[in-house]
Fold each of these.
Amino acid sequence: MEETIVANPRPIVICGPSGAGKGTLIGKLMETFPNEKFGFSVSHTSRKPREGEVDGTHYNFSTVEKMKAEISAGKFIEYAEVHGNYYGTSVEGVKSVQSKGKICILDIDCQGVRNVKKSSLNPYYIFIAPPSMEDLESRLRGRGTEKEEDIQKRLANAAGEMAYGKESKFDKYLINTNIPEASAELSSTIEAWFPDLSK
C-alpha cells in the first residue's frame, strides 16, 4: 500500500529522454537558486555506476533483488524497468526533502511519470526535449559510456518518450537547444510557480 505524501511545497517532476540534458539543467537550477530552496530526490537504480558517479549523490545504487523486495513492500512512489535495470523514487526520499521545507525535484522517465500521476504526489510536470533525434544521438554518443546496442535501445525508447511528452499533460514542454537558454527558461517557469524563490 502506497504511503500518502502531503505535497507542500509541491514537488517538480522533470522528465525526458536519456541524453536530453535533464541532469545538466537540474544542476544549473541549483546554481541559479543557491539558497537551498530545492532538494533533489535521489533515485534508486540497479544499474552499475558510471565513472564519477557517487552512491547517495547521483543515485542510490542497489541490486535488482533488493529493489524488487522494496517495490513489493510499497516503498516506492514510482519505479520502472529501463534498459534491463530498475529505477525508482522512494517514498522516504521525497519525504526527507519535504520535511526540510524544500521543493523536491524528481528526475524520472515517462514510465515513472505515469505511475506518479496515479499517486497522491500532485507535482508540477516538466518535459525536457532535445531539438531533434539527430541531436539526441550525438549527445548519447558524446558520453562515451554506452555500447552501440545501448545507444540503439535508448534511441528507440526516446522516440516513444518524445511522443508521450507532446501528447501528455505536462505543465511545461521545454526544448533544450542550448543549456544557457533552456536553463533561463526553466528558472523563469519555476519562479512563476514559486514566487518566493528569489527572496
Note: The domain at 12-193 is CATH 3.40.50.300 (Rossmann fold).
Amino acid sequence: MKFRVMGFLMLAALLVVSGCIENAPNGQNSTQAQGTVVIGTKLFQESYITAHMVSLLLEEEGYETEVKENLGGTLVNYEALKKGDIHSYVEYTGTIYSQILKKPPLEEWDSAVVYNESEHGMLNSDGIAIAASLGFENAYAIAIDRNWAEANGISKISDLAPYASDLVMGTDPEFATREDGLPQLARVYGFTFKSYNSMAPGIMYEAFKNKEVDAISAYTTDTRNDLYGLKVLEDDRNALPPYDAVVLVSGTFAQENPQALKALAKLDGRIDQETMRRLNAEYDMGGREARDIAHDFLANESLIPV
C-alpha cells in the first residue's frame, strides 16, 4: 500500500530516536530484556487468528508470548496497550480514527487519509505505532435476511428507509453508540431502527439465525453472512469509514525490540479479504483452533517453518 511508506519512515524514526537500531550492549538481545510478549484480542474469531499470527512470528524470533483471547473491546485493548499491560493487538483504521482519536467524519472517506491520520494521531498522542497493515478490510455493514431483501428489492442501506422503523437491530457491543456506527447511519441516511440490542458478536449472529433480530451490524469478512443467509447491504451514501486491519505495538515495545518489528513487518499486505474470510470459516465452520489456523497460514506463506 502506498500509504505504508510514511508508516515505515515514522517507525524507523521512532527507533532511531530511541537509539535501538543498534544491538543491545554485551550481546544481550531485546528478547531477553522484554520477557513475555502479551497480545490482546477483541471478542471475535478474526481477532484471535491474527493475534496468533503475531504470536507465532515473535516466537520464531525467540520471544515467549501470551495471547489474551477475549480481552475486551476496542477501548479495553487500546488502554491496555497504552498502559503496557499488553504489547500488541490488531485494530482497524476506521475504529482508530473515529472511536479512539474521536476525529469527525470525512466528507468523502479515503483509506489513505484515514490510515495516515490514525497513524500520526496514535503516535503523537499515545506513542502507539503500526507495525504492519495486513492487507484486508473488515468493515462494518448492515445485513438483513437475504430472501426478504430480494423479495422487497433491497440492496442498499438507503432502501431500508421505508422499513427501518419496524426492524429490530442487533449490534456488537460498540456499534450502537460509537460515532461511526448507528449515530453516523442516522445522520447520513435519516432513519433509525425500531430498537436495537447490543451483544457479543457471536451472540449477535445467533440472534439473527434464531429470528430474534431483523438486521445486524455484520462484519464483511465474516463467513456467517453466507452461512446464515444474510444480505450485506451496500453503503450507498458512504457513511461508514474504511476499516483496514493493522497490527499495533506500544512505543516502548517498538523502541526496545527492533527485531520484533522486522518480524511483524512480514505480515504487511499478506492477507487479502477472501483469504481472511476463508481463515474465519475454518474457525466458525471447521471448528479449528485459532492458533492452528494461524500456524498453517504462516507456514504456507513460508513465514515460519512447517
Note: Residues 35 and 305 are 23 Å apart (CA to CA).
